[in-house]
Amino acid sequence: MSEFDETYDFIIVGSGAGSMCAALVMRKTGKTVLIIEKTALIGGTTAKSGGVMWVPNNPFMKRDGIPDSPEQALAYLDSVTGASENAPGATRERRIAYVEQSPRMIDFLLHSGIKLDRAKYWPDYYDDQPGGSKAGRTVVAQLFNINELGPWKDKLRPGFLNFAATLEETLRLKTYKQSWSGKALMLKVGLRTMFTRLLGKRMISSGAALQGRMLQAALKAGVAFSLETPVQELVESNGAITGVLAQKDGKPWRVGAKLGVLINAGGFARNQEMRDQYQPGTNVNWSNAAEGDTGEMIREMMRHGAAIGQMEEMVGFQTTTSPGIETDYVKPPGQGLTAAPHAILVDQSGVRYQNEGGSYMAYCKGMLERNKTVPAVPSWAILDSQFLRNYMLGNSMPGTKKPKAWYEQNYLRKADSLEALAAQINIPPATLQATVQRFNGFVAANNDEDFKRGARAYDNWLGDPYHKPSATLGSIAEAPFYAVPMVPGDVGTYGGVVTDVTGRVLREDGSVIPGLYATGVSTASVMGRFYPGAGASIGPAMTWGYISARHAAGVNS
Ligand SMILES: Cc1cc2nc3c(=O)[nH]c(=O)nc-3n(C[C@H](O)[C@H](O)[C@H](O)COP(=O)(O)OP(=O)(O)OC[C@H]3O[C@@H](n4cnc5c(N)ncnc54)[C@H](O)[C@@H]3O)c2cc1C
Fold first, then answer.
1. Which residue owns the Cα nearest ligand 1 atom 47?
2. Are 7 and 549 in contact (CB under 8 A)?
3. Same domain, yes or no: 239 and 269
4. Domain edge (last residue) among 488, 520, 543
5. Omega within 30 of 0 (cis) for the link into 469
6. Listed residues 465, 488, 511: the one ending a domain
7. Residues with beta carbon inside 6 Å of ligand 1?
8. Digit-coded pLDDT (tens) for 223-277
């Protein structure tokens, strides 16, 4: 008699980014496949996310005549992620595999009926490095009518945008105060949302649209799902992983896997104990990762001998700690807050210490690094009245009255002079004044001599394209002045088990654990200790879902 209650060809633990891609590969080759998800909702952090994928040399770039090639993409990855020290997930072989396979993964999704497109302008985060692309290499799902999922629509994890706009459009909406094109876009999105609702459609966007489309294709292809089914153990037989032990309806459920088990169970962003162990100084309350990212499958793989790498890394995403942050579904975004004109970031001594543009991962790393020598968690965003009139602060619209609680709970500090502001936040007034004076000098010269803010296309993209002459440098000069605390939040962790080019999990000695594959943020990222562009987490998660399933199914071409 079998030791299993049921057996499939392939089992996927977690319904994150690569899972449904892997499942579609399996179904394409006629294999049976089961996705086991711990929570009541499908999609993981991926569904909650922006849903963009960083895919070099993708078919949409070719279509639009945007130059790229495998050589150029590899040169870029070599120059950016190649600088990662002690990063076993980011070997050159894996970088090469990523450059080769990620566009194929996109072709496969398109052939499977997933409607995608490219973001029109989203510069690589180190666009000034060799091989960097100013137009960007980011692929995104088209808006999706969630009603097409029928009874399954309530089983998709909600996204963070509740109107019919792509993420790229949403990011451009911030310019509605400054430009007619921003106002026209606002109108277009409003009308689109209204008309589609009148037609009985409920359009969703970003990560929810991506995972909604993936779920639709997976259901059509006959992929089996089991929700509210936490996997607790991997079953090993003669040194190979042959199945899993899960809890279903409160009872143990043993499921066998003939071709292998793929772990796509996310990272450990929601596990404070693991954060304290690997990423001291970071906090679950600042994380945007979905609640299922509690890291137990990483530990379970370690129990079976898996090597781990890059556990100190997270996809940092700076946030400002406005009241209610502990329970906010998506934390108030800090990306771009201090890259907008009329804003800087200072540590608790009142000194600027990094380029306020730059990738969110680099920004948060910078905060944590600074904090080792000068208290910098939280740091302070210093803003003036020009900023508040023109730009969003957290989730509050430009030029609007800020909630009373923000002042009452000492979140938003306001003062008529920089000296008075400094006194409120315990910074030496002379230091803050000197910092602002120096920064204003850089603004006048349109050259940030200290940190080169504005030298990259990406820094400017984060700023205000209508602010001249610099999209990101603007004086801090108009009273009253304001300060809000900034912390190194995140959108997930970025380290985990070490995998090879085919997605197989490796032991410390480099040998393979037979039958065990992993993808996504359960693994040590191919991007090492850097974030080369928008979608550098979901792109690889999808790609190694694709690669692992093909390997397990024995597809070679
Ligand atoms: C607001 C926001 C915006 C973002 N935007 C982007 C973006 O545009 N592009 C990008 O690349 N990244 C983005 N990120 C980061 C990105 O979403 C995550 O890094 C990525 O989605 C992780 O994918 P994953 O497949 O590894 O894990 P997840 O998508 O988190 O999926 C893991 C799943 O496994 C389940 N699970 C865990 N343990 C078990 C268990 N024991 N048994 C069964 N199931 C289990 C979880 O419940 C979860 O559903 C964003 C994140 C957020 C929050």
1. 292
2. no
3. yes
4. 488
5. yes
6. 488
7. 13-18, 36-39, 44-46, 48-52, 160, 230-231, 264-266, 288-290, 292-293, 296-297, 315, 330, 491-492, 520-522, 535-538, 541
8. 999 999 999 999 999 999 999 999 999 999 999 999 999 999 999 999 999 999 9
